[in-house]
Amino acid sequence: MTTADTVLSRPRVRVLATGGLTAVRRHPLIVVLAAMVLVFQLSTGSFLAPANLSGIATDAATLAIVAVPLALLVISGYLDLSVGSTLALGGLVAGRLASEGQPPVVAVLGALAAGGAVGAVNGVLCCRLGLSPFIVTLGMLTAVRGLAQQLFPLPLSGFGSGFAWLGGAKIAGIAAPVAIAVLVLAAGALFLAFTPSGRHVFAIGVNREAAHLSGINIRRMPFALFVVTGAAAALAGAIKASVLDSVVAGTSGAGFELAVLTAVLIGGVALTGGSGSILGVLLGVLFLGGLQNGLTLLNVPTFWQQMTQGVALVAGAALAYLAPRTGR
Amino acid sequence: MNTPPSSPRPTASRRRFLTLSAGALATTALTATGCSAPEKTSASGRASATVGKDLTKIGLDYPFTQLPLYSTLVKLSKAAAKKHGISLLTTSDNAGADTQATNLKTWVTQQVPAIVSFPMVFEAAEPIARQALDAGLIWVTYGGSLESQSADIKFSFREGGTLLGTAAARWAEEQLGGKGKIAFLTDSTIELGRERTKGMIDAFTKAAPGIDVVAQEQAIDPDTGLSRTKALLAKHPDLNLVLGITDAAAYGAFKALQQAGRSTDDAKTFVGGQDGSAPSLLAVKQGTFYRASAALAPNDIAAAIVDVPRAVAAGKADPSAEVPITLVQRGDTAEIDRLLAQNA
């Protein structure tokens, strides 16, 4: 290495180190995640095995697909608690279409339409009529579950090899759900970082009145995010239906809304709106997926697993809450 | 990545969220911890004012409305009731113990002449059953027994687990020479789950002591069954058997094993579950390594839901019923078709 190279490389190292420290300060979950991976690998010996990492990624993919649009919605000051039931409806619609011999693309489009419709209802009620998103989406959580059970009272199964592609195919060696999740994560990050609409999401979440006075349409963007969140939940449902080759109206996606909201919140997205990042959401999703998997590998008894998960989630949320303060 | 400085904002949303979370946690805790049937209580078979009269209405209170069995039971019970000119009422408890109590009290107040209830919390149902009997109504307990009741419809939940565990152990002895690895997908949150789990594990470990039990994981739905089995396969890629507390969980394990590369009819793999759900029955029928299901026949349950209250009303001496559980395996095509037709 020449003297000139050495001189040039020093600032680069410093910039990288500073950038890394800033990222850790903003997302202390990185440290927790790294420690968790280390502990699980040392204690099980198989946590970092490629097959296991692939399993974690596939399981976490559906969570990530919904967590990204939901995070944008929460950043804009809204909330969608109906995603668990929308996921079930999407899986059922896709499964029914697939079992009737429709091409997989039609099945997925059907699911997206169903999920988008649920999101549109949420959007109209919350953004146009100004009703509380908490109450509206909680109501929709129950209503959509009831609708799904009424329309599909019996389990659906046997969707055929074409539809199995969605959950089982490999794209360049990566499982299709993981590839879809990566696309969604990248789209979410680029949208927030490089588009005016992405900045509007923050502006609406920080102060709706100020955003309105700045000329931002404070209804259109959250409405679109509700529709996209509904469609994403339905897509996740179609993927789950494909992976399992079956779907049950009453139990599919039950509790999913809390899991995805947990991932978003421990990822550092403020429930009050106005702050958050896609990197944080990714960390939250990986943390939840890795924790569950590691506890299973360790063969931890059920109730200890529940306690450990609860404590870890509270700790993760506390770190995420404290992060912006330490970052200032 | 993109975090503009946050500004002070009202905290109403957060408060609302916390309030809901607390409510949800309380409900979950009640559901999870409260679903315990007393081990054995004696049926009192108290006289009812409805005895000797023709029944016109039966109230069916089945709390687990999220299960596919609910829709099937309601449909078949309504058909069975209609044959006798009886109308069937139903509750919508949504697996909530408090909602169930409210609905049952409403029926007692409305003097529904016969109530068939599957109590989520047997201790909580006891005073309501007593009120029903005091009001001259018929009370039939489903899935257990109360001190105050006219009769009961019993299932041997443990027997279902025992049948499955025994069949799996026999297969392991014959096909694996008594050596291999097994994982159990269990449930310890409600009495039904605990009984099935105990029957399944006790029967298997007694009959196949050489098989290594590598895990007992809580899983009752296909999603959890899938993810838990995937994780187990990372540590034990040579896992031979997975037995599920429900067919749903076992079906998730079945898909995980398939996705890990096992051929659908792998000779060294055994998956089995309990309930007799349609996807699992189809997999057994098709000759896959999903080899057994301890199945309940919905027609038998539906018939008991109508016949037991009628027997009480008719003043029969022993009106209670016990619904049998059948183990179906590859080759039991006629029985599988019969069960599938009932689930259609």
Automatic annotation (TrEMBL), chain A:
Q: Which InterPro entries match?
A: ABC_transp_permease (IPR001851)
Annotated membrane topology is:
Multi-pass membrane protein
Keyword Membrane in annotation: yes
User: A Gene Ontology CC term for this entry?
Assistant: plasma membrane
What molecular function terms (GO) are annotated for this protein? transmembrane transporter activity
State whether keyword Nucleotide-binding applies. Answer: no
Keywords of this protein's UniProt record, alphabetized?
Cell membrane, Membrane, Transmembrane, Transmembrane helix
Enumerate the transmembrane spans: 29-48, 60-79, 105-127, 134-152, 172-194, 223-241, 247-271, 278-297, 303-323
Which Pfam families does this chain map to? BPD_transp_2
Q: Where does this polypeptide localize?
A: Cell membrane
The protein depicted here goes by the name ABC transporter permease
Q: Which organism is it from?
A: Streptomyces canus
UniProtKB/TrEMBL annotation, chain B:
Q: Where is this protein chiefly located? A: other
| Cross-referenced SUPFAM superfamilies | Periplasmic binding protein-like I
**Location in the cell:** Cell envelope
The record's annotation in Gene3D superfamilies points to: 3.40.50.2300
Cite the entry's keywords alphabetically: Signal
Family membership, please give it: Belongs to the bacterial solute-binding protein 2 family.
Kindly provide the name given to this protein in its UniProt entry. Answer: Carbohydrate-binding protein
